[in-house]
Structure formats: structure tokens, C-alpha cells
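User: Fold both of these, please.

Assistant: Here is the first one.
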Amino acid sequence: MKITIREEGKYTAPGEGVGVFFEDLNYDLDGGLYAEMLENRNFEAKDVHGEWDNYIVENDGGYGWTPTGEGVALKIKWDRPLFIENPHYLRLTVQKAGEGVKNKAYDGIYLQKGMGYTISFYARSYDYKKKLWVGVLDGGKAVLAKKVRLRPDGKWHRYEFHAKSRVELDKASFEVRMTEAGAIHLDCFSMMPDNAVKGIFRRDLAEMLRDLKPKFVRFPGGCVVEGNNLENRYLWKASVGQKERRRHNWNRWAVHGVCPENNFRTPFSHYGQTLGVGYYEYFLLCECLGAKPLPVVSVGIACQYMSTQFVPLDDPALEVYIQEALDLVEFANGGADTVWGRVRAEMGHPKPFGLEYLGVGNEQWEDRGNEFYKRFELFEKRIHEKYPAIKIIGTVGPTVDTPSHKSAWEWTKENLAKNPDFVYASDEHFYASPEWLYRHANMYDDYPSNCRVYAGEYAAHVPGSGCAGFNAPQANLWEGALAEAAFMTGMERNSDIVVMSSYAPLFGRLGYTQWSPDLIWFDGKRAYATVNYYVQQLFSLFTGNVVLNTEAEGGLYASATELEGLVYVKVVNPSDKEVEAEFEGDFDFGSLTRIIRMAGDPAVYNTIDEPEKLVPEDVAPTAPRSLTLPPHSFHVLIFHK
């Protein structure tokens, strides 16, 4: 089968290419990338349940905390709070020495041998003068703990200590035990490992992101940006400043999957957002990764899958949303003499972050009188009046091949005809079967040249594998990843149209996941890359900035790019038969220096215990112009011109 690669018609890709999309779902921030090890550390948890436009939010500040034994009373209070933004705290009363309270910490504390940990908390004591045992215990014995003496003056005080673990220990317990009977107030616990990147991010997960070499990071959503109702939307201003003062918010994904069969309450009804990682930390993450930030702001429409709420176009309250977008650009790019640039500088980053992109809305579409098109035009006008260089990422709805998708593109094209800078690109989402991805691998061949696309959320959903459901790591099949690779060759060939792309979702914590498949799975101890991760990585690492004209026959899928004398060719053979591929072109292929292959049973997938069932492997280079393609295989070939 021939694969023809020509320089005729080649062009320089204008966009960023492969990035990542980080949304706070699947416990991938609190309990995941945020290295904080304790759960509900400030007693602000909410229990959320209900259905469309009728969500019930109940304070459940004691969630995740339980007595260590009998004679212990836990009471959540809010009079004379430590921080008014997060007013709830714990009153701990014990009737005998040696008892106290312990934290769930998701699946328990994992200690690494030789690792240091910083533990801190706030306490208020009126008459308790003895010490507390605070830290990690195993079977009631202190492993990483210290006795801390409280000041009995009726005021809140912060206590902190550092300790190093001498053992490796999994599923241990974080506890506070009083050394005599009495009562105290507690709030704002923290336990952070020394190896957290910038003291914020869990190292193994951050390093897996780094190894993807993403060109950009879209954050923090997704549906989280919209909220299940407008009150629940992500407020970026509440996510900056002192961490203890960042107001806790319940997570839209706490009610994903509610139905009569589960009494409109899921196992994740306490899923919340502590905002320990907020917009400032997201920008720092982008710096760490060498990726450009792509924050997303609300346009005053709640998640259209879960709510009918929106701010009417003639409501003065809409100005708040527009100002939030403008102030965000100032926070990222403004000098220290501006209001929000000063906030950034005071947090430790005097230099602007250099924001280029801004997502306006998520999966919005014209519906139920929300006048989305007119409101987007208003946002675009106001943003570009003040910040003409900002590249706005628009949206054409949550799906493709639908009437709303067609309508959105017609509206977008009309505006682009009047103003080429109306949007830099429009965000398309598709969670589809492998068959759909193969059928549509060439769909961007026919897009108008002035209609740029950000493929912001996509993944292959293999029927019957548990896709779009809870806790289904088996959904990350090679069958799906191979189809994604084929589709990505189409995006790469059309890099003048598809200027940005990102798989979704990014992370999933085992046992805590609302949506599958996910690119990276983890628990409290380990993490592993899926076969889908390696496909994304290969496209990210081995892509040039010049796109060559590529054609493949016989059911193969291929793309080719060039960078500084190297030609990167990607080839997918989705069939169950071995195929002989022959390369032709209008230039000298020169030497074939490297071949990277992924091939295997379509039903294979990596697991936490077997993380390398299928990974990329180098194979010996063959003759430059031919290659045997095993069944169900994906290859990256690197030629010297």
C-alpha cells in the first residue's frame, strides 16, 4: 500500500498543536494533582444531591472526619470563625486521654520512606493546656507525628512542624489525639510532601504532564466553569489570594449521574473545590510545563445539560461576567501598578504571565432564549476593545454533526467575514466510537480555510467498555487509542484548520471517577499512563512545524511534518492484517533513523498493576521506502532529508 508524501503544497502550521485540557472532575485536583493529602481539611464540605434546576446543597463539615473511639464528640461550629470566607470549624471534645479524630484522606495516607512532610493546622483553646498528638498513625502507633502544645488564650493560632518518614506505609491514618480530657477548636489542616512541585503539585502527576510536552493548558473546565447553576460557577477571583480565604465551592460533578435509581445522590455527593489550586497556581503550572495558558470564563449561562439558568442579555448583572473576563486578562498581563496585576505580584509573580488565549464560554449553544450568539458578540466586542491582541477561543456547542453545530458555524462564519479576528478558533467536542473517528478522519479536509478549530475535547468511546461512566479504567482500550491516532493524522494534515487539540478528560482517580476513559489514572500511591496517553505523547513530541502533503491508500491513515531537516511520518494500520507500506514522494527521503511502534490486541489496556502492557517501542530501522505494518499498529518514522 502506498503512502505518498509531497513537498508540493506544504505549509507552516500556524497554531499550537497538541495541548492538554485540565478540568476539575474525577478528583483530579483535590485528591489528585494538588499535592494536599488531607480531605475536607477545612470542614467546609457540602453534600449535594437533586436534579435539574433543583439541587440541594447541605453543609456537612464533618465529612471525612471520624472519632478515634468512644467518648469523643465532634461538632461543626461557625461562631467566631477563623476565616469568614470559610467559617466552619471543628469542636473536638474527648472524655479520656488518648482519643481524638482521624481524617479519611481519600483512601488513606501513603508515606514514602525518606520523604519529608510539612503538617500544619490552626487551633483555638480556652482552657486545654496539654499537648496534642498530630500526624500519621498506624495501628494507634505514631509513625509521623509530633506532640504540639496549644496556647490556652482563646485565640486562633497556627501550628506547623516538619517530619521525615522512616518507613513506607500505605493507607495509614492522619489523626489528632488529645493527651487529656477536654475540648478544643480545629481548622485548616494541611499535609504536604517535600517533593511537591513548587510546593503545590503532586510530583508524579506533574511529571507525566511534563513528559507530554503540551503546547498549552486549557483550564479549569469544562462544565465546572459554567456550574450546575450560576451560583455554582467557577469564580476565578475567589481562587486567588490567601488559600485559607478562598471560598469552598461544591463541584458540578458531584451530581453527575443522579437519577431516580440512586435517589438523585451519587457516591461523590461531597465532591468539592477547596481552590487550593486556583488561577494563580494554574498559571504557575503552565510555566512549569512550558505551555501557554488557556483559561476559560463563564458567559452567564449555567451548564445547559443540568440547568436552564442564564443571565438575560438586558440584565445589568451580565456586566459582572464581562468584567470578570477583563479583570482576568489584567491579572495575567497587567503591570504591578494595576488592580489585578498588583494581586498577582503580591502573590509572588511580579512579571506578567503573558496570556495570549482566552476561552469565552464552554459548551454553549443557542437554546431556550439564552441568546448565546448575541452575548458572545458582546463579550468579544468588550474584550477586543480593551485587549485587541487577545486570541479568543469560541465555541460551536457540545457536539458535531448536529443542527446546533451547523447553526453555530454559520453564525461564526458570518462574523468572521465581517471581522477576521472575531475568534481565533472555535472549540469542537466529540466523544465518539472508534468507527466514527475512522469515518471522520478526513472531515477537516473540507473545512473553510478561515474557520479555525480547537478540538478541545475528544476521545474514542468503545461501546460496551464503560465509557462515560463511573470508574472504568478498562475503557482505555487500544482499540480506541488506535482510532484516536488515525483521527489525529487528519487533524495534523489539516493543521492550518485544527490549530489546537486536547484529549479529555485528562486524569482519573481510581474509585473516584465520574467519567471514563481518562488519559492518566492514579491512586494515592501510584499513577500510570494509558495507551491513549502514549498516542498523545507521540503526536506531541514528534511533530514539525511544516506540514507536508500526505496521502495513504488501502485503509491506512498517515500524516507527515518537517522540522529542521527531520521528517516525521505517522502511519496507522487499523486492520487485523499485516500490511506492506511503500513510501513515495517528490523529495529524497534520505536515511530512516528511527521507528517507534505501538501494536497489540485491540482489547488490551494498561492497569495500575500492569502499567506497561502496551507502550511505545523502538524497532530496528528498515529500508527507507518500505515498512511492514503489523495489525492494529501505529508507527512514527523519523527520516533525515
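And the second sequence with its predicted structure:
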Amino acid sequence: MMNNNKPEMKSWITGCWSPVLTTSTPNSGSESDLLQRDLINERKRKRLESNRESARRSRMRKRERLDDLNAQVVQLRKDNRKTTAEIAVTTEHYVKIEAENSVLRAQLTELNHRLSSLNQIIAFAESFEMETGQGGGGADYGGGDSGGDEFYDGAMNPLNLGFYNQTPNMTSASTGFGDVPNCW
């Protein structure tokens, strides 16, 4: 649509029709007007070129940033896989150590139980010696050189104690009727 004073022109920047003001002066074709239009057109062209170059640099920066981020993602995934593998190895090692510790704890409990039993046996043997007055301080609990045929395995055998093999002295507790013990 054309109006006498305001003809419409399609803008090459926006692609829309917009009114363009033109003035009809008798000297519209003068050289100064042409120079001024050329100067305006040159400024527009330089601005457009500058904007295009700026947009190109911006796209390049974005592309470089995207490439850097992609490289970082690749590196982080590698690190993640490595860390996951290390965690798996460490977990496996931990489970093995925990199993060994469990066995050692069970052995410790068993050895403490055995030690307690042996201490009870020793305490019983010492109290028996004190009550009977036998032993003379160097009691043979089945492992010494008592001259007997007992088997000695280097440890105290609670089922083969030497004081069980000794015959009790019953003469002091006798009734006077020979060797019959006083059972009353």
C-alpha cells in the first residue's frame, strides 16, 4: 500500500512492512543527500557486519565452552568409573578383613574360655594342696616328671591330673579298728 507521504517498504532487517518517511524536496537528488544516504547506509552496513562478527564470536565461544564441558563430562565419567572400581576393590578387601576379624574374635573367645578353665583348674589344685597339705609347693598336675607313665603333651591335661593318682592318707582319720576310715 502506498500513501503519498508515507510509502511502505519491506524492511530487510525485520522482514515486515513499515512506513518510510520520504520528503519530496526539489533537491532530493542532490549530491549531499546522496552522500548522506551513503554515509547512513555505510554505518548500517558496518553495524550489521560488526553484529554478525560479534554473533560469530559468541557462537565460537559457546562452541568452545560446549566442547570444554563435553571433555569435562568424559573425564568425570572416567574418574567415576575408576572410583567405582576402587570402591569395589576396597569393599571386597574390607569384607575379607572383616571375615578374618570375625574368625580371630571367635578364636579369642575360645582361648579366653580355655584360659579361664585352666585358671579354675589351677585354683582348684592349689586349694586342694592347701587343704591336704600335700605337694610341697611343687605340685605335679599331670605334666611333670612324676615318674609315672602319664602322657604329657606340654600343656596341662585337665583329665589326667597327678593329684587324682595319689592315694589319700587315711591313717589320721582312722577309727582305730585297723585301716577302716571314719565315714561318720
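Helices lie at 31-132, 162-165.
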